[in-house]
Write a structure and sequence with these properties.
Largest interface: A-B, 25 and 12 residues
Radius of gyration of chain B: 16 Å
Structural class of chain A: mainly beta
Number of helices of chain B: 6
Helix content of chain B: 25-40%
Oligomer: heterodimer
Helix content of chain A: under 10%
Order of helices and strands of chain B: HHEEHEHHH
Number of helices of chain A: 0
Largest sheet of chain B: 3 strands, mixed
Chain lengths: 324, 154
């Protein structure tokens, strides 16, 4: 069984925390939310302290923040219809670009693992792909109108140039590029309400999606067709909307939900011999926060450390241990 | 602008026995939230279309509110005056905002259409349950102004 132990509570945000992102080294943490601020936190002498506040750039809620793979840049997506890119220049964060184009609320932003592409999505039902030049210019190279409703999130495949998006239209979609042309290759149907987020496993052969239908679904790539198939659906654990999911390097799935709980799931041994994939809940913290949990993320270097952000305006850092 | 429902039926409100006030002053008495308390909070919200309250229009009804104080949850159902009412989402938004401001954050609040009373029930319920859309709506100045108008003095 697994155990989650609360290590630190990071206080400072005045309203809902929507998103948390570890820097690639795991030494810094960026958090953002309804107070229109981004906070950068670092551990000093065993305590997590706010080292910088990025403010006055967005006029509305900051829904998402993500570090570039090199760790020098941070992209922030806001309900004010813009994306800001910040660069860490000798410890000071400078706003180096404002990306305009979305009609209204931008809800998600994600850097491709090679750092050369940035994806964003929003209320205008579109997914945008931006090319990042060496001189830090950002040029939109594709606008994808495949979803019929708001696109809640985007996430890149860990090893291949592929992007997954999730939406209010109850589906997730996968996009690929062919000769500079981006197109939708797969649609993941099955969820019965909004799909809030998705995450790939470290190999990229499996993905997890979480939904307002209170379930999470695991999708596994079929060897023959290389298409993703719904391998299993986990229901009966969450009692409210599941807002966030993430997959660790140790193959543990974590979820954060509107029932204030954090849960972890592990693959169970295949006892039937049928080859069917099944996952079981291995840990749950029922009152992990005082309100809805909007984001959960594993530490990039230490798969036993987890961060969570909540409507209760706090960010928490957790230690995960597992005993067979 | 012509009104969607120019002649709504006006109700006089419920005749309910309020709680014994004396106990309210006793700090040793636990005072759990109940449906009546929630009803009192929302009944005077004004309809976006008429100078009437949700109580007068029977949009809000005591029997359509369920509160489980121990479980920290409540369900508030509202009944649009006509099944095609285009104001239903806006009324739901006003209810959400009012409850957000008045109910302790420990409560999970669901605002939904009374089953069977609106042609787009599922769609409106989904929108009202999406807190991201609610938050975005509240950052929209023109929408915010309408909501504040309905909540004025309430």
């Amino acid at each position: 069984m697994g155990t989650l132990t609360e290590l630190h509570v990071l206080e400072g945000h005045r309203e809902t925390v929507w998103h948390c992102a570890w820097s690639p080294s795991g030494k810094s943490l960026a958090t953002c939310g309804a107070d229109k601020e981004v906070r950068i936190w670092q551990e000093l002498g065993g305590k997590w302290k706010c080292q910088a506040i990025l403010e006055d750039s967005h006029e509305r809620t900051i829904r998402c923040c993500e570090w570039s793979p090199c760790g020098r840049m941070l992209a922030t997506a806001s309900f004010d219809a813009t994306i800001c890119v910040w660069e860490n220049i000798d410890g000071e964060f400078e706003n180096i670009a404002t990306l305009e184009g979305h009609e209204n609320e931008v809800k998600s932003v994600a850097w491709a693992p090679n750092g050369k592409l940035l994806a964003s999505s929003g209320r205008d039902k579109s997914v945008w792909i931006w090319e990042v030049s060496d001189t830090r210019d950002f040029e939109c190279i594709s606008v994808l109108h495949e979803h019929s409703q708001d696109v809640k999130s985007v996430v890149w495949h860990p090893t291949e140039e592929m992007l997954m998006s999730t939406g209010y239209d109850d589906v997730a979609k996968l996009f690929k590029e062919d000769d500079d042309d981006w197109y939708c290759t797969e649609t993941f149907s099955g969820h019965e309400s909004t799909v809030w987020q998705a995450a790939f496993d470290p190999t990229g052969n499996q993905a997890v999606t979480c939904s307002d239908d209170k379930t999470i679904r695991i999708w596994a790539r079929d060897n023959a067709s290389s298409k993703f198939q719904n391998a299993c659906t986990i229901s009966g654990c969450h009692t409210r909307c599941v807002y966030s999911c993430h997959w660790s390097a140790d193959d543990v799935i974590v979820t954060g939900a509107g029932d204030d709980a954090i849960r972890t799931f592990r693959k169970s041994a295949d006892s039937s011999g049928s080859g069917a994939v099944s996952y079981t809940m291995d840990c749950q913290v029922l009152k992990a926060h005082g309100s809805d949990i909007n984001c959960v993320r594993w530490h990039p270097k230490d798969a036993s450390v987890l961060v969570s952000g909540s409507d209760d305006a706090t960010v928490k850092i957790w230690k995960y241990t597992y005993q067979n | 602008m012509s009104l969607e429902n120019p002649n709504p039926t006006i109700f006089s409100g419920v005749n309910v026995v309020r709680k014994d006030i004396h106990n309210e002053w006793d700090e040793d008495t636990a005072d759990p939230w109940d449906a009546l308390e929630v009803y009192d909070i929302i009944k005077d919200i004004k309809d976006p279309e008429h100078p009437l309250t949700l109580e007068q229009l029977n949009v809000a009804q005591l029997d359509n509110i369920e509160v489980d104080d121990a479980d920290n949850s409540m369900i508030v159902r509202f009944t649009p005056t006509i099944p095609h009412c285009t104001m239903a989402t806006l009324i739901g938004l006003c209810l959400r905002v009012k409850l957000l401001r008045s109910i302790p954050p420990r409560f999970k609040v669901e605002v939904i259409i009374t089953p069977g009373t609106h042609s787009s029930e599922a769609g409106i319920n989904k929108q009202l349950a999406d807190k991201e859309r609610i938050q975005a709506a509240l950052e929209n100045p023109s929408l915010c102004e309408v909501v504040e108008g309905c909540l004025q003095g309430v």
